[in-house]
Specification:
Blueprint: H1 6-37, H2 44-112
């Protein structure tokens, strides 16, 4: 994924999203059918309505879970990027300080000779 052009990556993400959504819909329908199967006193119309409502609720819960996960991922990304920037700045400062010390030591040696 890292080396792919942006449009191929976007296409891949779109296909992956579609497949995830289709899997979630199928999972919701399956769970709804399993739930409604235990309610044998319902008429076919009532069973279909219960299945539709159950599937819709199941999908709503899945969507909310995905949104929470995405928000947390964005928060973590921001935190890690901040830590990375600070670490990079500290390393750069250390290298610059080390370079300055080497130059100063060279100057002291050259002046003393």
């Amino acid at each position: 994924m890292e080396g792919l052009p942006l449009d191929v990556r976007a296409f891949h993400n779109a296909v992956e999203g579609h497949l995830l959504a289709a899997a979630a819909h199928e999972e919701a329908r399956t769970a709804a059918a399993r739930f409604a199967a235990g309610l044998d006193w319902l008429t076919e119309a009532q069973r279909a309505q219960v299945e539709r409502q159950f599937a819709a609720e199941h999908l709503g819960l899945a969507r909310a879970s995905w949104q929470r996960t995405a928000r947390r991922g964005e928060e973590l990304r921001g935190e890690y990027e901040g830590v990375y920037r600070r670490l990079r700045a500290r390393l750069l400062a250390g290298f610059l300080l080390g370079g300055a010390l080497v130059v100063a030591a060279d100057l002291v040696v050259l002046v003393s000779v």
